[in-house]
């Protein structure tokens, strides 16, 4: 069930992040770097989640500035999401496990700070400017944060099972 208020969104974001962090604390660097599901590593997914938070922040800033917002990114459509995600993974391939985790922590802190500065109306009263759909800023923030943390945790658990087999 999606959040419908700032308080719910902050609580959900913090809880999902804390659960993910606790799970990541159990993953050694050598396991984090192993390719598993779809030839993607745990490290790849964690760095990717950090990237998407920053991407959301860019969408929001562009919309507020009245700029054309490119979803998901300039030169890509939602139908090309796999290609876009491949590009992200390739650009982050050099990151260590520690660097990927630090990037996620920093991106999460940026998201929480951002959410803390907005009120319920700014988050949920209207569609996000520039989004070209009915999703509110709060819904986009949840997709980039809490929902991505939850799916990352599921990915980590699946990789753990796959690599243990």
The CATH architecture comes to Up-down Bundle
Which CATH class applies here? Mainly Alpha
Global shape: globular
Q: Helix-strand pattern, N to C? A: HHHHHHHH
The percent of residues in helical segments reads 55-70%
For the largest beta-sheet, the strand count, sense and barrel status come to:
none
CATH fold group: Four Helix Bundle (Hemerythrin (Met), subunit A)
Overall residue-averaged pLDDT value: 95
Number of beta-strand segments: 0
| SS-derived structural category | mainly alpha
Ends distance: 33 Å
Protein name: DfsB family protein
Pfam family, one: DUF1706
Summarize the structure in short.
The chain is an all-alpha fold. The chain has helices at residues 6-24, 29-32, 42-64, 81-92, 97-117, 120-124, 137-144, 146-164. Helix content is 67%, strand content 0%.
Secondary-structure blueprint:
Layout (H helix, E strand, L loop, with lengths): L5 H19 L4 H4 L9 H23 L16 H12 L4 H21 L2 H5 L12 H8 L1 H19 L1
Helix pairs in contact: 1-5, 1-8, 3-4, 3-5, 3-7, 3-8, 7-8
Give structural notes.
It is a single chain. This protein has 165 residues and is mainly alpha-helical. The chain has a single domain (6-164), classed as dinb family like domain (Four Helix Bundle (Hemerythrin (Met), subunit A), Up-down Bundle). The chain has helices spanning 6-24, 29-32, 42-64, 81-92, 97-117, 120-124, 137-144, 146-164. Helix 3 (42-64) packs across helix 4 (81-92) and helix 7 (137-144) packs parallel to helix 8 (146-164). The protein is globular and about 45 Å long. It holds the Pfam family DUF1706.
